[in-house]
Amino acid sequence: MITLVEMSLRNFKGTKELDVRFDGKSAVVSGPNACGKTTIADAYLWIVNGTTYADGRKVEDTIKLSDESGNQTVDGGIEHSVEATLDVDGKPKILKKVFYEEWKKKRGSENKEMSGHRTKYFIDGMPTSASVYSKNIEHIGGDTLSMVGRPQSFAELETKKRRKALLELIGGEQLPEVDDVSIARYIDTYGGINEALDAVSHEITSTNKSLEEFPVRIDEATKTVPAEIDTTALSAKLDELEKSKAALLGKISRLEEGGDASAELREKLLSLKEKKKDLEINSMMGDRKELDEMYRIRNDQRARKEKRESEIASIKADMERTKTENKQIAKQWKEIKNLTYEPKDTCPYCGQDLPQEMKDKAVERFNLQKAERLSKFGRDGKMTMERIKDLSSMLSVKEDLLNVTLKEMDATNVNIERLETRLKQAENRPEMDAIEDEITIVEVQIDEARTGSQTALDDLRVMLDGLNKEISVVNTKLSGGKLRENALKRIDELKKQQKEVARKYDDLIDVKAGLESVVKAMVDSMEQKVASVFRYARFCMYKKQINGGISQCCEVLNHEGVPMTAANTASRITTNLDIARAIAEHTGIQCPVFVDNAESINNIPDIGMQMIQLKVTEEDGLHVHLEEQEGA
Predict the structure, then answer these.
(1) What's the Cα-to-Cα distance from 180 to each of 177, 404, 516, 533, rounded to whole Å?
(2) How far apart are CA 208 and CA 505, in angstroms?
(3) 80: which strand partners?
(4) Contact present, 7 and 75 (Cβ < 8 Å)
(5) Alpha-carbon distance 155 to 151, whole Å?
(6) What would the CATH number be for the domain defined by 260-448?
(7) Is it the case that residue 530 has pLDDT exceeding 60?
(8) Would you say 19 and 36 are in contact if contact means Cβ atoms under 8 Å apart?
């Protein structure tokens, strides 16, 4: 058990000097407003965890007095201290903190300036570090000292932290055993009851939407079913039409070729063309072969010419870039050559005169760096000049090669012109002219034969158009029969899918009902655990959502189920004290409890720990009534 024996406050939150003895007993601290009651609670909490009683903020922000703007005043280094003597399992433990301004003299300044605030720590009268002090607090009680000392701390925690702390107090959250395999599979798959409910609700909504769409889709498919037709009769008629069309196309083909009368003329024309071809091959084969070779040679020469021209252009561009680079190097060399250096006479940092030796070294260092840079740019300039010389030599070689290629091309063009002229002369020989005249006569005779059958061809083509139209009509009707078959098949598929989706919907409804029963069992279990740990406090651990699931929460309620934000002061005090008692019993650490606004409650429950009530009374000044004195 831990009790508060006494405390000494010096310059703490407007209290210049205050010594309070509790002797480890419960007490009532009374007096008018602003007499220092809450300051005592703040002093205790500063000792154990550094927060204020009213709102849980850092005590250091309010230890010193504030000016009219709300900023802490500068007090010249006054020490603000609290010393508390605790009885820890029958052994005294003296804890002390000292808060003060830190003043330092900056370089070049005669006066000290405030650089911030610091805190000193003492244990049993010996100075120590912040980390050692914290470890001592953790050893005797840690967070329990502040959570119990300021009972409303638990209710003010963030929801997640509050829920986590509550679950530790009641032994954790446990999912009831699930016998249904499908329910258990959903919970395992989605990682929890909430996630499973969300997933099932989403699936139910999606499945229900699909079910609502099926009647519309089936109705639309029914409207598109074509009328029933006799496909057997239509197929037989189509066969007859196709046979008639084939016979008609044969007649048209024969007439287009000129008929049987022109067969002899066509054979004669073919013979004349073969004779002409043989004559061309025999008379011009050598020249043609040589001309083809000349064409190939000229193509190679053109490729070499284009390659030489590209190389020359690249070399010229490289020369221009190198010349530009050389000019820039020469310009930079001149700029560096003209650089001079005048050393400074005084130090830019301390303002003292520099010795001549330092100035000479600075000049020597500058001249050395200048020489190195001039040497570098000199080397670079020499390299660029050598590069320009090499490129000029390369350019001369490439231009000579280009001139050679151009002369070769001129010679090749002369040979090509010679061969083309000789081939043209060969084509105009009398024997070739006679064969071409005979071919022309035979072609005219074939055209005359075709012209005689043109009228008959026109009549046959009109008949062919009529047959094609009839065939198209029959095919359209037959395709309607296929569409009807496909549409009826689609309707059957939609009806089958509708039954499967309806079955899935029913299964999902059963799963959701099972999950909700698991939720109810879990909520009932949590309520029983809470009731077994707390006497007055109640907690809302789950809230039901629109989709039927639950969301985790941890809202603190009084014994009537009223949220703390809406409960009266007496009810809040009672509930917070019940939570403090549960925390102390869970951790096994009984420690002092401070109750502010104690005048608002008639009967404060006994929680088995040292309780210090802060009451507003009409007494003059601050008074401390120990338990025996109050009962006397």
Answers:
(1) 9, 96, 13, 32
(2) 7
(3) 99
(4) no
(5) 8
(6) 1.10.287.510
(7) yes
(8) no
Q: Tokens in use for 52?
A: 């204020």
446: amino acid identity, one letter: I
- The domain ranges of the chain are 2-155+584-631, 260-448
d(CA 575, CA 401): 106
Q: Which residues, in sequence order, are CB contacts of 587 under 8 Å at separation 6+?
A: 141, 144
Which residues have C-beta within 8 Å of that of residue 344, sequence separation ≥ 6?
Answer: 354, 359
Give the containing element (helix H, strand E) for 104: strand 91-105
pTM above 0.85, yes or no: no
CA–CA separation, 142 vs 135, rounded Å? 8
CA distance 74 to 420: 113
- Token pair listed for 203: 């699936």
Residue 471 pLDDT grade (very low, low, confident, very high; cuts 50, 70, 90): confident
Q: Identify the CA nearest to 507 among candidates 175, 185, 177.
A: 185
pLDDT over 90 (residue 120): yes
Report the pLDDT value the prediction gives residue 623, as an integer from 0 to 100.
Answer: 93
Q: Is the pLDDT of residue 451 over 70?
A: no
> What CA dihedral angle connects 522, 526, 528 and 532, to 10 degrees?
160
HSE-CB at 190 with a 13 A cutoff on CA atoms is: 17
CA distance 468 to 316: 72
How far apart CA 87 and CA 21 sit, in angstroms, is 13
The rounded distance, in Å, linking the Cα atoms of 558 and 576 is 9
Distance CA 308, CA 397 (A): 10
541 residue type, one letter: M
Q: What is the pLDDT of residues 493-523, one digit of tens each?
A: 988 998 999 998 898 888 888 888 887 787 7
Query: Mean pLDDT throughout 526-554?
Result: 79
Neighbours of 198 (CB within 10 A): 17
Mean pLDDT across 101-125: 86
CATH classification number, 2-155+584-631, choose in 3.30.450.20, 3.40.50.300, 3.30.70.20, 2.40.128.20: 3.40.50.300
Contact 376, 282 (CB under 8 A): no
pLDDT grade for 630, boundaries at 50, 70 and 90: very low
Measured CA to CA in angstroms, residue 206 lies from 3, 179, 195, 306 at distances of 62, 27, 17, 70
199-210 tens-digit pLDDT: 888 888 899 998
384: exposed, middle or buried (Cβ count in 10 Å: 0-12, 13-18, 19+):
buried
Q: How confident is the model at residue 163 (pLDDT cuts 50, 70, 90)?
A: confident
Q: In whole angstroms, give the CA distance from residue 112 to residue 121.
A: 24
Per DSSP, what are the bridge partners of residue 540? 555
> Is 580 in contact with 607 (CB distance < 8 Å)?
yes
Residue identified by tokens 């037989």 is 236
Q: Enumerate residues 6+ apart whose C-beta is below 8 A from 348.
A: none
Total length of the chain:
632
